[in-house]
Specification:
heterodimer; A: alpha/beta; Rossmann fold; 4-stranded antiparallel sheet; 26% strand; B: ABC transporter involved in vitamin B12 uptake, BtuC; 13 helices; globular
């Protein structure tokens, strides 16, 4: 039996009196590549904040790797690429190597220094995302897609078992989005990293992920990609709202 | 020309102090600049001035030599740093408001203490613009102790300080105690400012923290290199500034800043020319 690494039960969360999530039940198995889709304001980012322990649910329980989130200590098992990762100061004088190394800071801990083993890990993570030739370049000199890869490397360097990506393809051109999904596929297949990818772009994602969950305050659907494609368009629209724009890519 | 600096003890002390602050001011300054907090240095230096004026006033009125103006300046600077942090949490949406509040508060207090101490005197002038002859043996001892504290804490918390500077949100999500690290950073800044004031003066201390970085950022690759170049510019400006200030009988604050501005013009020009030549190469 596969291990459940995320288990959400009956989650309710409201910002003052505005309900963001209600009756959310969701479990993610080890090895999954789950796409979380839903309209803007549907609670996707809130859900991630709950998973990361940044917010606490008003109702329900969250377990990570079998431990309640409030007691969870092994945060280095979880990598996170924020949708705001690209919002850093472009003039910041930091090389790719220095940025990726910050992914190890918390794991190394206070009063300890980087050693050769850590530096090798940084190199490996950069190699994994195919950016080795840029290792000594300033991060601000790279393109948006390249920067995105660096932020993934930063999340990967601590060797997480579970990687959460929040709208990672925003602002990246189509060709690089394709390459980006290939990278995610590789991480999932070869490195056996469990992925949770949040996106409002249903089409591209569902052709790469192997499971889909639809969130609009509640979970409206959770199943494999094929079942999702078999859903009637009407049913998808009914929860997704008016801004639906599905282009399915059936391979 | 330098022989007098080895002959007279007070000049030697000044030069050594200069070398120390030429190291720690640009070091902390690099973090200050990349976090876009350059104005904090100005805010804190004016609070330090209030502390100095307070020390001068106490000395003049009551003959209390317990607190030298330098020590009371340092204490004020540290309290100013804590206050800025408090204010930044009070005015979450207007974080830059903390700086003018602190700055004007500092100047206001300074004016009051100066008036109570019966006006401007030579001492105060040297605190404003720096001096080549003002560093006493006692000041020097405090300054190198401050430098030791600053250097060891920056080395110890380098990776956390860097992470917080680059991406605060990422630092928080990863479980770094970002509030404590930030407080550490601002306290170190306060210490560096009070240590630097004897040489460069209240009005120009922020220049020694930020101008070397402004030059270095144009030509350096990466953060560590930015720090190294900033320190090199800082040291060069301090040496040139102190020596020329002494011979021209000008407070070193002025000469140091002019040297730094010259570096800035040179690095900017060099970088532009280099970019041009790269572009030409690319076309050929």
């Amino acid at each position: 039996m596969t291990e459940t690494i995320v288990e959400l039960k009956n989650i309710r969360y409201a910002y003052e009196d505005k309900i963001a999530l209600k009756d959310v039940n969701l479990s993610i198995q080890r090895g999954a590549f789950l796409g979380l889709v839903g309209p803007n304001g549907g609670g996707k980012t809130t859900l991630i904040k709950l998973l990361l322990g940044v917010l606490t649910p008003q109702q329900g329980s969250i377990e990570l790797f079998g431990t309640p989130v409030e007691k969870f200590k092994h945060w280095s098992k979880i990598g996170f690429v924020s949708q705001k990762a690209n919002a850093f100061n472009r003039g910041f004088p930091a090389t790719v190597k220095e940025v990726v190394a910050t992914g190890l800071t918390a794991q190394i801990g206070y009063f300890k220094f980087f050693n050769k083993k850590h530096r090798d890990k940084v190199k490996e993570a950069i190699e994994l995302v195919g950016m080795s030739e840029y290792i000594d370049k300033n991060i601000g000199d790279l393109s948006g897609g390249q920067q995105q890869r660096i932020f993934i490397a930063r999340a990967l360097v601590s060797e997480p078992e579970f990687l959460i990506l929040d709208e990672p393809t925003v602002g990246i051109d189509t060709e690089n989005v394709q390459k980006f999904y290939e990278l995610l596929g590789k991480l999932n297949q070869e490195k056996k990293i469990t992925l949770l990818l949040v996106s409002h772009d249903i089409g591209t994602m569902t052709s790469h992920a192997n499971g889909v969950a639809c969130l609009n305050k509640e979970i409206h659907f959770h199943g494999d990609t094929e079942a999702f494609h078999n859903l009637s368009e009407q049913r998808i629209s009914s929860f997704y709202g008016h801004d639906l724009n599905i282009v399915t890519h059936n391979h | 020309m330098l022989s007098q600096f080895f002959e007279f003890e007070f000049l030697r002390t000044t030069l050594y102090t200069g070398l120390i602050i030429g190291l720690i001011a640009p070091l902390l300054g690099t973090f200050v600049v990349v976090r876009r907090l350059s104005l904090i240095a100005d805010g804190l230096s004016h609070v330090t001035l209030a502390g100095i004026a307070f020390g001068l006033f106490m000395d003049k009125k009551y003959g209390l030599a317990v607190l030298t103006p330098f020590t009371s300046g340092t204490i004020f600077s540290i309290f100013g740093a804590i206050l800025i942090e408090r204010l930044r949490t009070v005015y979450k949406a207007y974080q830059d408001l903390a700086i003018p509040i602190i700055l004007s508060g500092g100047v206001g207090l300074s004016v009051i203490f100066i008036a109570l101490a019966d006006g401007l005197n030579n001492d105060l002038y040297s605190y404003l613009f720096g001096s080549v002859s003002a560093v006493s043996k006692q000041d020097f001892n405090t300054i190198w102790i401050i430098a030791l504290i600053v250097l060891s804490l920056v080395a110890l918390f380098y990776k956390e300080l860097f992470m917080l500077s680059f991406d605060e949100e990422h630092a928080k999500v990863s479980g770094i105690h970002s509030k404590s690290i930030h407080l550490l950073f601002i306290l170190l800044t306060a210490l560096v400012i009070s240590a630097s004031i004897r040489i460069v003066g209240v009005l120009l201390v922020s220049a020694l923290m930020t101008l070397p970085v402004a030059s270095s950022i144009r030509i350096a690759k990466g953060f560590k290199q930015t720090i190294v170049y900033s320190i090199l510019f800082g040291e060069a400006s301090v040496i040139l500034g102190i020596v020329s200030g002494y011979y021209l009988e000008i407070p070193p604050g002025g000469t140091i800043v002019m040297v730094l501005i010259a570096f800035l013009i040179i690095t900017t020009t060099v970088q532009k020319l280099w970019l041009k030549s790269q572009r030409k190469k690319a076309i050929v």
